[in-house]
Design goal:
Length: 150
């Protein structure tokens, strides 16, 4: 299964970027991935315009997982079971979307096949990217029975 991360903006902080790259390197042992960074919307643009830029990067056949405060809150083992279900269903690509600090357009919400909440706490987007990648890596170690998750 291929993972396609789509998020708004770049990871600018070098410390978060280093953690992001570290976990992506670890994740690469389990899954192929790609990252698409969407340009932040201009002050005069609406969330719909930004949402259209996101949706333009989503493959039509991709299973879409939206990171959303209103999404399902899962523990690490539950996330691993969910990913395993996606694999069993034969899903070839999962697109994971992190919107902007201003939210996400209704069109992106409607396109999502699954909504996931990382936390009830508010996280910076750079932090959320690292947490998401680390948790997906952790899920794969759980699926494979590796000791990392302990």
């Amino acid at each position: 299964m291929k993972l396609h991360f789509i998020w708004v903006g770049k990871t600018k902080n070098k410390h978060w970027l280093a953690l992001q790259e570290n976990y992506l390197g670890r994740l690469s042992h389990f899954a192929k991935y790609s990252i698409t960074e969407i340009k932040d919307k201009a002050p005069h643009e609406s969330l719909e315009i930004e949402g259209n830029r996101i949706l333009d990067k989503v493959n039509q056949s991709s299973f879409v997982c939206l990171l959303d405060i209103k999404g399902r809150s899962l523990g690490s083992r539950e996330l691993a079971r969910e990913i395993e279900k996606w694999q069993i269903r034969g899903i070839k690509e999962v697109t994971l979307i992190i919107g902007s600090a201003e939210g996400i357009s209704s069109a992106v919400v409607e396109r999502a096949d699954f909504s996931l909440s990382l936390s009830l706490l508010t996280l910076t987007h750079e932090m959320a990217r690292v947490v998401l990648i680390e948790q997906i890596y952790r899920a794969y170690t759980i699926i494979k029975g590796y000791p990392y998750q302990k």
